[in-house]
Every structure is written in structure tokens, then in C-alpha cells.
Amino acid sequence: MLLGRVKRVASLVAVCTCAVSYGNAQVRSERVPISQEVVADAVRVAGTDVTPDQVHLLSNVTARAGATLRVAKVSAAPDGKLLAELKCKSRDCLPFYVLLNGTNDGQREASKGRPNAALAKLKEHPLVARGQPVTLIIENADSRIKMSVICLEGGMPGQTIRVASLDRRRIYTAEVVNSAVVRSAL
Q1: Which of 9, 16, 28, 145 could serve as a FRET partner for 38 with CA atoms 20 to 30 Å apart?
Q2: How many CA atoms lie within 13 A of 24 on its CB side?
Q3: Do 77 and 108 lie in a common domain?
Q4: Last residue of some domain: 79, 106, 124?
Q5: For residue 149, which of 120, 171, 125, 179 has the smallest C-alpha distance?
Q6: CB of 161 within 8 A of CB of 150?
Q7: Strand ranges (E), 24-143
Q8: pLDDT tens digit string along 88-134?
Q9: How many structural domains is the chain composed of?
Q10: Is 97 in contact with 107 (CB distance < 8 Å)?
């Protein structure tokens, strides 16, 4: 009876030792604050010319080191500024918003209710158009599903849009990859 208890305790100690050493061996990616310069670069890639001084972060945001930002949406704020929603590729950060002050793309037109030049530029030539058939790739670590779908919205690379199955019974949200492929995660 005592020998049985000793064996159970020894096996429990061995399991705990393995778990602790495995936890210590895992590399945890360091989180770093997202700066105005990184946000300005992502907004410039999306087509709006801004400097880091024109970017106003609405909160302190962190991401994994080496994360790549992309602009998901740009809209006109009530005060004539631009409100940009940013996301990280590969889910390295949570989505967040920034205000863009005094952009060179028509801030006054936005405050007068006219289409903003930055918004028009993003919507003018979408990579995928509403009603366009594309291939949806749904994947996770273990599986990958490909299916034909119809775009319900137009979008640029990196932008999240809604797509529907060919029979229009299922609606999916997916990220635009190129003019023929959109991607989603399970």
C-alpha cells in the first residue's frame, strides 16, 4: 500500500516537472506599444497621406513584436476628422481606432457632408466588387475548406467584407486576399 502511494506521488512529480519545463520552454512573444509612426505607415499604405503628427491614438494599444497593421475601414468623424479602424494581420493585436487630424485629402469636404477624398479613393476602385464571384478559403490549424461565394460588398486587400454562399443561405465575413480569393478562419 505504501509502495503504491509512493509510485503515484513519483509519477505526479514527474508530470508536474514536465509541465513546468514545457511552460518555461515556450517562447512568449513580447508585446510592444503601437506608435503613431507605425499607424501613419499603415494609413499611407491604404492611400491616405498622413504624418505621425496627424495621428491621434484614442487608447494605448499593444501588439506582438513585428505585427503588421492594416486599415480595415476609414470613415468621416462628426468633427470633420477621419476615423480609421486598424487591425493586425494574423491577429497579433485587437482592432482599434485612431483619429487622423488635418489630412491632406479633403478634411473640409468631409465636414460639409461631401464625400471625403480619402474615402472616395478607398471605395473608387475596390479589388473585389459587389456581386463578384470569388473563392472563400476557410482554414484553421487542422483543416482547409474552399468554396465558391458571391461578394456582398466591395473591398480592398486586407479589408473584411461579407460574402454569401451561391444559394445565398449562408453569410460569411472574410478578408480580401486578392481579386479572386477571400479568407476566413474557423
Answers
A1: 28
A2: 6
A3: yes
A4: 124
A5: 171
A6: no
A7: 31-33, 55-57, 62-64, 69-76, 82-88, 96-100, 133-139
A8: 877 788 888 888 887 644 444 443 444 455 555 544 567 888 899 99
A9: 2
A10: no
